Amino acid sequence: MKVETYLFGAVEISPEKVINFPSGLVGFEESKRYTLVHEDDKAEAASFTLQSLDDPNLAFQIVDPATLGFNYELLLSDAENALLQSPATEDIAVMQLLFKKEVDGKAVISPNLRAPLVINTRARVGLQKVMESLRPNITLSNLSSAV
Length: 147
Description:
Elements: E1 2-5, E2 9-12, E3 19-20, E4 33-37, E5 47-52, E6 59-63, E7 70-71, H1 78-83, E8 92-103, E9 106-111, E10 117-120, E11 125-128, E12 139-140
Antiparallel strand pairs: 1-2, 3-4, 4-5, 5-6, 6-8, 7-12, 8-9, 8-10, 10-11
Main location: cytoplasm
Subunit structure: Interacts with translational regulator CsrA and flagellin(s).
InterPro entries: Flagellar_assembly_factor_FliW, Flagellar_assmbl_FliW_dom_sf
């Protein structure tokens, strides 16, 4: 199917590349179908665009938390596990939404630490796991120091 996007123009999307978020995303509950888009000339993408298929003007930048030094260990409720179709651990991808905010008059890009996306990559279904507080089971690594 051909989809018009805000950032990439017309893009051809195969139906098996659609990711369903049955509950939508926080603030965007009406958009339930998404796909991942990235520039083709990049060998390995560090970030992706999560493009809504329900609203061509809606897109989010997302990243693997590991690229930012985060490691999530999330506990899913029975309802969340059922929504994700009881995935195997190796079929789960956790991603962070990036957002832009103004700090001292400058635009700063930050990850949304409290509401990561959890995606069953095999079933192509996901949810946004909203956490009221950060728990100590999130580990940070210092990416600037030698390993």
